[in-house]
Amino acid sequence: MTEARARRRDAQIRRPSQRPERALVAALRAELAAIDPSRPCDRRAELAGLGGDPGGRDAPVARLHHRLAADGTAAGSFDWDGARDHCRTAWLRGRFLARGSLSIAGGRTHLEFVVDPEAAPVLARRLASVDLPAAWRLRRGRGVVTWKSAETVGTFLRLIGAGAALLELEARQVSRALRGELNRVLNAESANLGRSVAAAGRQLAAIEQLEGDGRLAEQPFIVRAVADARRETPEATLGELAERLDLHRSAVQRALERIEWLALHDDPADRPVVRDRTDRAPRATRRASGGRSASASRGRALA
Predict the structure, then answer these.
(1) Rounded to an integer, what distance in angstroms lies between the CA atom of residue 111 and that of residue 134?
(2) 112 forms bridges with which residues in the sheet?
């Protein structure tokens, strides 16, 4: 086997996996083209939707046109307003197979009909009458009727008879949406973890600096307790430190912010007077002392 032939063979083997969306759309069109209407009126309606010229269509649609025309069904105009719902469905199926194209590449769903300019507003009105409103415009002298909503496209395909291929399409869309949501959650968690690691590194460096110059020993009890807990468990979150020390999370956060601020300001004259609850002992310490609070002490002093 020559090298060129081997490359062509490998390309043919890889092609289905490289373009799964196109293969799925082809399977969906083949599934719709395989539907054989049992009512004569439906057969006439679908043939009217297909139009009279089968040239240039894919093989399943060409076979459908030949099958409908071979049994004596004549193509002609279609009276939408006077037709029953099943006849309208058959006509829409033929119109999609003849003039419709579906794209699901890149996670986006796009279905459009390319018709004559004067037929575009007519088709849009007919779709709106079955609760499937669509936008239409003129593009390079042709009328284009468009949907970009995956939900609307799914409703239309289900209406005209899509089954297994549509289920696979919807499963892929759900899987893609779940993967996207999972990636967003993982990215957010990674970003939060990165910020937490960076903050813990700054706090540990600040604690070492304050301990080295003796200023850590001058801090209130809770600041020293939080510093010790951070050194013992560098990976702990603020909530975990608070639970370990029996403190509020905000108290732990203020203590760590105070440590970082002190490490950045070496001049004692620049130190702010920090008045917060970090000067109080933890709740466990207060309970061990008999549960007497500062307010009770003030009450006895006033008495």
Answers:
(1) 10
(2) 101, 146
Q: What are phi and psi of 290, to 5 degrees?
A: 100, 5
Classify 46 as helix, strand or coil.
helix
Top pLDDT among 268 and 197 is at 197
Does 203 lie in the same domain as 156? no
Whole-angstrom distance, CA of residue 152 vs CA of residue 168: 16
The total number of structural domains that make up the chain: 2
Model confidence at 51, pLDDT cuts 50, 70, 90, reads confident
At 273, the pLDDT band (50, 70, 90 cuts) reads very low
32 inside domain: yes
Residues 62 and 170 in one domain: yes
Among candidate residues 151, 176, 201, the one where a domain is terminated: 176
Q: Return the closest-CA partner of residue 64 out of 74, 78, 50.
A: 50
Q: What is the span of the domain harbouring residue 237? A: 192-283
Note whether 172 and 196 are same-domain residues.
no
Helix ranges (H only) for the chain are 3-18, 20-33, 40-50, 59-70, 85-99, 119-129, 150-159, 164-212, 221-232, 238-245, 249-264, 283-288, 294-302
Q: Which amino acid is at 126?
A: R
